[in-house]
Amino acid sequence: MKLERKEFIKGIIKENPTFVLALGLCPTLAVSTAMSNGLGMGIAATFVLLGSNIFISLIKNIVPDRIRIPCYIVVIATFVTITELFMKAYSPALNRALGIYVPLIVVNCMVLGRAEAYASKSSVKNSIMDALGMGLGFTLALLLISGIREILGLGTFFGYKIIKSYEPMFIFALPSGALLVIGLLMSLFGLLKNKKT
Amino acid sequence: MKEILKCGLILCVICVVASGLLAAVYSFTSAQIDKQNKNETGEALKQVMPRAIRFEAVKSGEEITYYRCYGKDNKVNGFIFKAKAKGYSSEIETLAGLSLQKKITAIKVISQNETPGLGTRVTDETFSQQFTGKSAGDISQVSAISGATISSRAVIKSVEEKLKELQKILK
Fold first, then answer.
1. Distance from A168 to chain B by nearest Cα, in Å?
2. Domain map (residue ranges) of chain B
3. A71 touches chain B (CB under 8 A)
């Protein structure tokens, strides 16, 4: 149990996919303009990660080494398409807001990275924990970035106006703001990580 | 040779399982997705022409050129058309409702991917309300949003041009 908990916890700070492993930065830059988008993207990516980690860990012994990448991509693409279909059916507004970045989860290096570096070598149980931890870490990171950007750049929190007279700093809503926020948070996480070990 | 066959077979099995799964999910969700798409267009049409209860698409070939709107008494009480133009970073699509006098009842930006916080303000009511009551001649009086000049001009221009183009054929 202790080991499994460690697999789960590590994704949140020590091996946070966004701030420490620097995986999946492209969608992070693009969808973190609003908190609702960040949350949606986080949940979608977590679902894909969970599905692909379980599946890949199950088939790890029957897949020969030389064709493992195409196999992983097929598995990941399947889960991404499932996610997209469900999103289209039950939350079309979110699907429109995330746009091309939903299908692009297929090539999100976080998902393939976890499949290659973790799920293909670990038991199903540990892979589930890893996926949940990484997914949660990714979601929290997106919420943190989009929260800062939305509050400073648009003056809203989850779409609700918080301060009436606040004049938003638009730079935080633009891509340059995303780079600034991510850079500063990365250095903060670096500091946290160094202190712990 | 044996190795290639084995690898191909394994990949094939994985693909078959994956496509089976996808087919199942697709058939489960397709009805719901269709419904959502229909709802969305219906809602948007209702918003620009609230007094209409039925809409009929007028097509030339495959393309829908405009919608004819019918009121409770089953008489035509307005038109709706879609205008498109390139904005700052995306194609902006706008639905506009027209009264029988060819005056705009309301507009609604239905699709855009402009800069968040700046260009996206073309969807704000303070901007779109300015169109109400305008005819082809005075749409250019609508004032653009500061900080989003290109996006708002795209909307204004596209609606104006499309209206001028359609004015003669609407009936």
1. 9
2. 49-166
3. yes
